[in-house]
Amino acid sequence: MRTDWTLMVYRLDKRCKTGEKLRGRYEYCNKTEDEMLAEIADLRRSLYLDHMFRIDLHETYVTRKNLMSGQEYKEKFDTPHYCSPAFESYWSM
Question: What is the DSSP annotation of 35-87?
Answer without folding.
Answer: HHHHHHHHHHHHT--STTEEEEEEESEEEEE-TTT--EEEEETT--GGG-TTS
